[in-house]
Fold these 3 entries.
Entry 1:
Amino acid sequence: MFNKKILSISLVLILVVGIMLSFSNSTDAWWVFGGDDSKGQDKVKIGFLVKQPEESWFQDEWKYAQQAADELGFELIKIGASSGEEVLSAIDNLAAQGAQGFVICTPDVKLGPAIAAKAKLNDLKLISVDDRFVGSNGKLMEDVHHVGISAYNIGKLSGKTLAEQLKVRGWDLEKVGYLKMTYDQLPTIAERTYGATDVLLDSGFPEANVFETPMRTLDTEGSFDAANSAITKNSDIEHWLIAGGNDVSVIGAVRALEGQGFNATDVIGVGINGSNFAINEFEKDEATGFYATIKLSAKAHGYETATMMYNWITNGEEPPKVTWTSGTLMNRANYQELMN
Ligand code: FCA
């Protein structure tokens, strides 16, 4: 009798345990209250792809995006992708890792349609930063969410700085050459150099002394090589002005001029970005020809874009289609103040 009772209780227990085990792979089993087994899978993952990870501007963007990730508790996946192939495989990779969206500064604006298509295919949200996508019809892709700088206005501020400093120096304009460091295949860079040049010409600078200096690559080396040949060809010039789309476009030219004997007293260079490359110039004991830069907001481009993406993923809050950011003049006198 007693043994029969024990046997039937045991059978019931075995049955209950069996049912529990059969549910044990499911995360929504009815007996799991507040279990944390799904936490790791639910974490929001956001990619941040940049075209030139070696440039300090992009390191700053990453730094601020990471700050947003730490504050909001999402995982930031930072990827340097400097070719179309790298970008497209990185997007597949992000999807495989379970990311829900990404922010990108593309290595080539013409990759826009391929990037947008791949993002859609993988169900990833997309925001472009800095360099706006160009469609196959040659027009800007206005349907892709974008955060960029107000390029022409920032270029104008660079031109105004050059014109003002030129007056202070009191040089004979006939002896002044202007190195317009161009990289026209990237619209945001073209607008910046055009803005600077327009203001300089409006201030009375002679058009004949504008030296269009196209760079093969948008880096210090590209600037150095392009400037070197322009300087060599114009050996009658005694003083130089330099404007470019970013800091590296100007720093290379400053180095090329130094190599040919022109220093801070005969050179006024104004860059754009205001990240570490510019700060390094200002921290040198002796002033260099890199007179000033227009500091952009890496925080707006890193922290804000990542936060926009996070809110879009988690609350369905769609960011504005386009956001334009501004810049501030930075030089030896105020850089320490602006760094913080
Ligand atoms: C472009 C340039 C960068 C930076 C950014 C805002 O991507 O290459 O140096 O100026 O725009």
Note: Residues 15-40 have pLDDT under 50 and may be disordered.
Entry 2:
Amino acid sequence: TRLILATRNAGKVNELHAILADAGLTYELVGADAYPDIPDVKETGVTFAENALLKAHALAQATGHPAIADDSGLCVDVLGGAPGIFSARWSGTHGNDRANLDLLLAQLSDIDDTHRAAHFACAAALALPDGTEHVVEGHLLGTLRHTPSGTNGFGYDPILQPEGMTVTCAELTPAEKNAISHRGKAFRALVPVVRDLVG
Ligand code: ITT
């Protein structure tokens, strides 16, 4: 069976491939790059789950194959959950990780260590061409540093220190991060759903 992953991020494809293989599931997993003629769907949802479902349904409809999509971001308690679904474009330009991180740190400059709780969230959705859908969420709780530390990962990894740790996500190896991350948890939670609905 062919399974489409609604992302152009090769790292995400590899990560999900490894998780499915660990679970003994052997699908032909292909990223959205395999379908260059299918336009990216507008992320008009107001939650991670809505956006993940929008992307998964669009790809399942367009390809005729089961599709998986994820939507993720950083939610800061003292900002009422922002940047949230706007994490990738918090500074205005989509995907400018450094500008996004710098703006967030500036916005939190007056906030002391006891009020810097935040979490990464990831919604992972599976949609079938017949309209069947399922969505799961994973979270990674932590606190935000005042200055970035570490060079691994991407996005807000250099400032999120997971609960119970003394390093940031950007100081973890990819395997260490996957084991605890919002995306790792969501993708692993999706495995039994894929087994049930796709077979
Ligand atoms: P897609 O092609 O898969 O849509 P994307 O990077 O645009 O990739 P995501 O929904 O995966 O979109 O991520 C949204 C933003 O949230 C991302 O740009 C980061 O700023 C932040 N983010 C999400 N997961 C993160 C993680 O594991 N570590 C650090 N930052 C993360």
Note: The radius of gyration is 17 Å.
Entry 3:
Amino acid sequence: KLSTRLERVAKHIPKGARVADIGSDHAYLPCYCILNDIASYCVAGEVVEGPYRSALNQVKQAGLENQISVRKGNGLEVISENEVNCITIAGMGGPLIASILEEGKNKLDGVDKLILQPNIGSYSLRKWLLDNGWELAEEEIIEEDGKIYEILVSVKGTPMKPYQHLESELLMGPFLMKENNEVFRKKWEAEMKQWKIILMQLEQAGENEKAKLRKAELSGRIELVQGV
Ligand code: SAM
């Protein structure tokens, strides 16, 4: 059975889409999408040999070799231009997802939807989307097995559209802030607790330039989160 996290990612894939799942590991998501008649064709990309082998095995076992192409390579280099119209990247940090998109920019022309699931650091991912002509269209926050995940769905459009208070919304997500649900509050309460502990440690460590900068950054963030 697919994790709730990946099931939620799959929910955003348009019916009949041609999908590249980058960092696919076991290719669970592409298999699910084909078996459930969501995607018409998938590429499962993996950069590491072990997970690449797992993906190959999984696809073979499911008998889906004709609909899922498993490829080894870094980020978007595994797809050719206009091969897919939807990209999913899940289960990595936001900065890594942003760097995969940045390095693969030339492959994004024919793509109209990005479904991204950063485990941490979604600020840098929202920032990348905003700076590169992608409009944030939907966001979700979910909790599974005690972990909290965000899903960002982006389309080509008007990048500034969802934003009114840029810094806080890049950090916490404009849609998630508005919805302000229980999981969202839990996430930011936990983050604040962490930041306050780090702040206390920095206070004890004494004054140096680096500590001062870090303290200012953390205090700024705490203020943003407390403002919600
Ligand atoms: N997407 C699956 C999920 O959400 O359950 C797997 C997540 S797993 C934690 C991250 C996978 O991304 C690993 O298998 C890793 O090898 C792969 N990965 C990391 N950087 C990558 C890159 N630049 N290109 C392709 N795959 C990458």
Note: The first strand starts at residue 17 and ends at 22.
